[in-house]
Amino acid sequence: MILNQEQIMLRETVGQFFEDQSPVSRLRELQQRPVEESYDRALWSQMAGLGLTGITVPEAFEGLQFGWMGLGAVSQEAGRRLVASPLLSSVALAQNVLLNCASKRQIESYLPRLLSGEITASVALDEGRFFDPGSVLVTEQNGQISGSKARVLDASMSSLIFCVARREAGDLGVAVVATDDACVRITPARFMDLHGCAAITFEGVPADRTEWLEGVDVASGLEQAIDQATIILAAEMMGSARETLERTVSYLNEREQFDVKLASFQALQHRCARLYCELELAESAVAAALMALDDAASSVSAQASAAKTLANDVFSLVTSEAVQLHGGMGVTEEMDIGLFLKRSRVCNQLLGSSSYHRDRYARRFGF
Amino acid sequence: MTEDALSVFRTEVADWLDRHCPASQRQPIVREEQIWGGRRRVFPSDDARKWFEACRDKGYTAPDWPVAYGGAGLDAEQEKILKQEMARLGCRPPLYCQGLWMLGPALLVYGSEDQKREHLGAICRGEIRWAQGYSEPSAGSDLANLKTKAEDCGDHFLVNGTKIWTTKADEADWIFCLVRTRDAAPKQAGISFLLIDMASEGVSTSPIELISGDSEFCQTFFDNVRVPKRNLVGAINEGWAVAKELLNHERKMMAAFEGMLEKPAMALLELAHYAVGVSEDGRLADPELRSDIVSHLMRETAIAQMGERIYRQGKAGQMDARLPLLMKYLGTSQAQVKDELILAALGGEGLSMDDESVASEGVRKMVKQWAFNKSLTIAGGTSEVQLNIIAKRALGMASGERRS
Prior knowledge:
heterodimer, A: about 375 residues, alpha+beta, Butyryl-Coa Dehydrogenase, subunit A, domain 1, Butyryl-CoA Dehydrogenase, subunit A, domain 2, Butyryl-CoA Dehydrogenase, subunit A, domain 3, 3 domains, 4-stranded mixed sheet, 4-stranded antiparallel sheet, 11 helices, 10 strands, about 15% strand, B: about 400 residues, about 45% helix
């Protein structure tokens, strides 16, 4: 990534902050906490205090306007330490759904509290087994919202849910619903990567307790927000994949068998070299996608799909190989490698598998 | 240069290209019409000659070389603009030459002033065509094992031995060679870099027939060839450094080979549509091929994005020196993936390189290309050697098991 001076400072500050405050061991501590707690609130307050909620937000809305490359760099640093936080769920996804799909009045009513870290929001998008934003079954009927959503990130920690639902007229809408509403049933879960999400059932939330976002073009605003969050997730995944490869190479440089360092075996060198090629290839696609976001390029959707596919594939590959290259240690809970492995599989499903994005990319190019 | 100055430059370049590049030279290049220069150079048409001469006079055959040596003295940004404008107008590369891509850049670093003056201009002007004499029958990946001997005979060297994979040596005028000037340990310490006029007595070539039916490569023999001392580049026994400089340029060139090659008659997607057809939902009828093509397109794009990333890093002073090491491995492997997809899409039509009853000329060329491109991951340092280098230099993996 090519960063400007502000972004370099931001990355260094945030990298050091995560290193001190949120190493991988902090993620493990969540296991001892109730399932509702998908991240550490105190850590999140500090992150909000650093301004991480407002990196891409325009100055007109009191944001830092440091650009997508800046948020990408922060997400990579988070990915390196597997930081659990609402950076993806609330900052990358919910805030952009708000900015892209809401009226100015609505933005002004919700955004300040999101930016200050006082509240977070999460987008209820997935329904079935797979990410498929094209098929939404949760519907508005007689003014009420009913239906079930799956894998709503950090939902039990959020104050607001932005529920993607079919309006009575058949078009796609986004309803703002409070998580403490009596008609919203949240079942929190912790995935194997120790990050949290929830299944949500909307049991006929009445019209006077829902607010539909009133932007000009909600459907394309939503697609745009999903592309933005997808690229940010891909950046986070690249940070995790890079950390995994670096840890693996250090391990091979330390461990000795047959009286030599494992790293001196050509079979292992070639595997690592291939992984590194794949890593930088995917990184190049992700960096280009972040740049496309900053330039508001028309190719963003295709680039988001390419970036997510390459990030999915390289993160899976690097983590599987890392386990193998760590030998017996790789399958022990003592090492963190297993957490990176599990995180890669969860990230692969979030915001679209490679299979989904390859199909989407092909359709964009007319085949 | 300021953004304003660059934008003025862009306008001037576009205007110059538009005035000097005939319409026929804006058609995609075909192999038979590539201009390789040399003493025996021929031009396929008057337009081709005009375009070449215009570029030669402007220094655009070697745009980044100093004006004093026949280049145009462009900096990296200007050169990029020139390339972009040429690509936009579809201008053909004015000159193809190993001298341009490999020897020249190395001479600029290691050559004496006399050598630069003698050779660089002749390269830019397309007067001398160069071949490369590196590999030998027993020195491939283990290049330092080379045996071709240059004996010091006072005012000249006496060269004996053989070089293999000398690209188009049968059409070349001069050859740059790595030769052994002493038996030393390590082997690299006894190698010198020598320029040899192939018209000298005792030089002969013999083409090697390839699986693609081409014979791009030759074996070149040296039998008591007298080479003047002034043709030694760099110090005696220090040719390995020159060779490495040159290999970097060769690998860069091979990673970017795609743009220099003749374009296939149809782009991959178009070909797949034509050959495989489309199902009712608008998707390519073969779902596996469709998925493989998408993967390829994404990776091909990402390789170009990596090239762009390296360029921008250099410009921003944030160069990650590890990235250029990856380009040859990635670029050449991906070119082969593409050829495999072309063959998969062609089905039964892709089973002959020369039988007109099986396929059209355009299709047969694609099949030949598939076979020829198997050499991409071998020539210029095999993929395996590239991975060794990446593991050692980019990842800092311990050496020890292997003898270096």
